[in-house]
Specification:
The chain is α+β, with helices and mostly antiparallel strands. The protein contains 4 helices and 4 strands, in the order H-E-H-E-E-H-E-H. The chain has a domain of 66 residues. Strand 2 and strand 3 form a beta hairpin. Helix 1 packs across helix 4.
């Protein structure tokens, strides 16, 4: 709802799916940030690589985005195997409810113009 008007209706999953314009994954690997970041950025299917800090044990955590429909997890699995990397985490990430809400509001405002 925005100012008393319903701008979207559905379950959390349905609303998130409406707002999802990209595939997102979290990848935590052991190694040097710059080297890993450069290698991940060379993947042509990946639109964004964002370093999110180091974790205990020297693991670098990244958030990656690719166009909707890109098989991001299989792509990253292949990357990991080809480079013989030590992985702590690889998971798909959904937009937060806040990100979904902001997207829905911005979409509604652009329709009003």
């Amino acid at each position: 709802m925005d100012r008393g008007r319903v701008i979207a209706n559905g379950t959390r999953e349905e609303l998130v799916q409406m707002a999802t314009k990209t595939e997102r994954a979290v990848l935590t690997l052991k190694g040097d940030r710059e080297t890993l970041e450069s290698s991940l950025e060379s993947l042509k299917e990946v639109e964004e690589v964002r370093f999110e800090g180091y974790r205990q044990g020297g693991y670098a955590r990244f958030l990656l985005r690719a166009p909707t429909g890109t098989p991001l997890i299989p792509l990253l699995n292949d990357f990991i195997r080809q480079n013989n990397l030590e992985v702590k985490e690889l998971s798909r990430e959904e937009p937060t409810l806040e990100e979904t809400f902001i997207w829905l509001l911005s979409r509604d405002k652009s329709r009003q113009r």
